Amino acid sequence: MKRPLPSLRLTVAAIVGLATAMPASAQFAKPEDAIKYRKSVMTLQFNHFGRIAAMANGKVPFDAKVAAENAEVLATIVRLAPAGFVDGSDKGETKAKPEIWTEMDKFRANASRLREEADKLNAAAKSGSLDAIKAAVGETGKVCKGCHDSYQKE
Length: 154
Hints:
Structural class: mainly alpha
Distance between the termini: 52 Å
Mean pLDDT: 89
Radius of gyration: 16 Å
Number of helices: 7
CATH superfamily: Cytochrome c/b562
CATH architecture: Up-down Bundle
Number of domains: 1
Order of helices and strands: HHHHHHH
Oligomer: single chain
């Protein structure tokens, strides 16, 4: 009997994670917990996007299966970070600029754009087309950079 595909397990784990993350803001016992949570999410985003970007930029050999697996995970985890930006988590060991809390609607709109671009990247990766992936990586990267330029301390 065949074992389930690793991507199926990742998808199930991601769905469970997403379902439990929605009410995450109510689950943080301390603001520091929210900061740790969002740092973890950002680390995952950076790693999974970075693997795809490295292929798109020719820094590592292109592997359609690896790109698709990473894009699938990325499309899920980009939905998690906003839950970690709760009241009181603007202080402490964070690179988040105060503007996040004064411009929360704009910040959430950027997060929504990131979800859209990550979904497009996921579709491009599923197609197996390196050219499509390159284009989607470029657009996703622009959204990431724009948010970091506006809302992340140096």
